């Protein structure tokens, strides 16, 4: 082989190795960035989930406080039944019947209030 051909071979090989190293570095950076992005998205999802659960808990707490202080005197019984405290067996049908009765009572009071407003 002539000296020029040998030199061209080594130049070509050096270029291929340099390109391979740059490709490897670019791929490593891309995978690293994707990993960072994935971690950030998971953290955002976790924070969003925690915020949603916190809001739900606050809303539930506010709602339950409102029901336990109902002016009809039925709120405590409703809260106890909802929590399974009203009956030791936690009879679902009895709880549903109590809720229906309470709804009917609230409707009649609402109609009475509306008729007084007119």
From TrEMBL:
Q: Which GO terms describe its biological process?
A: thylakoid membrane organization
Q: What keywords is this UniProt entry annotated with?
A: Coiled coil
The residue ranges flagged as biased composition, category Polar residues, are 62-75
Where is the region Disordered? 55-86
Which residues, by range, are in coiled-coil regions?
Answer: 89-116
Q: Which Pfam families match?
A: DUF6825
Highest taxon above the source species: Bacteria
Supply the InterPro entries for this chain. Answer: PG18-like
* PANTHER family named in the record: BNACNNG14650D PROTEIN (PTHR35745), OS04G0513000 PROTEIN (PTHR35745:SF1)
The protein here is known as Thylakoid lumen protein
Lineage, broadest ranks: Bacteria, Bacillati, Cyanobacteriota, Cyanophyceae, Oscillatoriophycideae
